[in-house]
Amino acid sequence: MSKEERILEVAMRIFRERGYHAASMQEIADAVGMQKGSLYYYISGKQELLFMILERAIDTITTRLEEIWRSDLPPREKLWQAIINHLDIVSQRLDMLTILLRERHALSPSQQEAIDSKRVNYERLLQKILAEGVRTGEFRDIDVKIVSFGILGMCNWLYQWYSPEGRLTAREIAEIFGDLIFRGVLARET
Amino acid sequence: MSKEERILEVAMRIFRERGYHAASMQEIADAVGMQKGSLYYYISGKQELLFMILERAIDTITTRLEEIWRSDLPPREKLWQAIINHLDIVSQRLDMLTILLRERHALSPSQQEAIDSKRVNYERLLQKILAEGVRTGEFRDIDVKIVSFGILGMCNWLYQWYSPEGRLTAREIAEIFGDLIFRGVLARET
């Protein structure tokens, strides 16, 4: 792992545990095992570090959804893969996604804009999958935008209650949510 | 409106717009139109103010759900009322609920514990409604806990995207979410 990677990983953990505002660059330097001065050789400041984490989070979750959207799978299967992808990443990268979902308002306005446009891009990909299913008749004639926000809400909220030591794995939760969502959107019982 | 009420209302707006950590007691005093010293006559500090807002938020949303739970309505109607209640409060009290859903980790550990136990109480009420529906056969044999988190996620997430100037009212959104959820949980097509 490169030094920069290591700094990012440590910062994710500390930002998640202590909250972005309460965390200090000194703590991060101590946890990485370097001088605070040296830290600034890699990262220009705490807000820049936050931005890098949020960008990494949204890019990670989007890359896979783009592959799913561009695949030849039928809309139903694309939606299922999208749900799995989302829940897998939230559950496996709980630190990174918690910061994305919770600390966005600590960014500068221009940084927020950059992250928001990536977020909108992610939402649109999900909406395209839903719209495709409506077009092919696999899905009901739903309000694609509102339903996409409902699905995102269910999946994002995982960051508030999921525990790796919990009763169910992320895949088992995906099956329950997937079942719920499919009954909600499919055109007919299958 | 009492002085204390007015302080709470102003603090909700400022905490939501600027984030809890970035907001200062001086700003709140200025916006209320009083000296910072006088503010401390009503409120012991910023963290106490945050706690009061979070407690108010969770108590508001719970009071109505308790009435719904204790009513004689059938489970399906209770669930529908619960969804409306939740979305109504998130949409009408966007400032208060945003702070509840976003700033909880800025509380002291004992304050967090107090809010968490109220949150668990709210979740249990929703789970009781779902479990009652499973018992009467109105709902499928769902995983009550996970489904309740899915519903809460859908409804809570509203705070991230809802705008009073948007295309749909909170009631129209409730109808779309309600339809989705009912298709997901009802034992048979109705």
Q: Biggest interface, which chains?
A: A-B, 34 and 34 residues
Please identify the oligomeric state. homodimer
Report the major sheet of chain A. Answer: none
Average pLDDT figure of chain A: 93
In terms of structural class, how would the helical and strand content of chain A be classed?
Answer: mainly alpha
Distance between the termini of chain A: 47 Å
Q: Label the CATH architecture of the largest domain in chain A.
A: Orthogonal Bundle
CATH topology of the largest domain in chain A: Tetracycline Repressor, domain 2
Helix percent band of chain A: over 70%
Number of structural domains of chain A: 2
Order of helices and strands of chain A: HHHHHHHHHH
Compute the number of strand runs of chain A: 0
Report the β-strand fraction of chain A as a percent range.
under 5%
The general outline of chain A is elongated
**CATH secondary-structure class of the largest domain in chain A:** Mainly Alpha
Task: List descriptors.
homodimer, mainly alpha, Arc Repressor Mutant, subunit A, Tetracycline Repressor, domain 2, 2 domains, 10 helices, elongated
Describe what is shown at a glance.
Chain A is mostly helical and 190 residues long. Chain A has helices at residues 3-18, 25-32, 36-42, 46-70, 75-92, 94-102, 109-136, 144-156, 158-161, 170-185.
Outline the structure in words.
Two copies of one chain form a homodimer. The first copy, chain A, has 190 residues and is mainly alpha-helical. Chain A has two domains: 1-43, Arc Repressor Mutant, subunit A (Orthogonal Bundle), CATH 1.10.10; 46-185, Tetracycline Repressor, domain 2. The first copy, chain A, is built from ten helices and no strands. Chain A has helices at residues 3-18, 25-32, 36-42, 46-70, 75-92, 94-102, 109-136, 144-156, 158-161, 170-185. At the A-B interface, α8, α9 and α10 of A face α8, α9 and α10 of B.
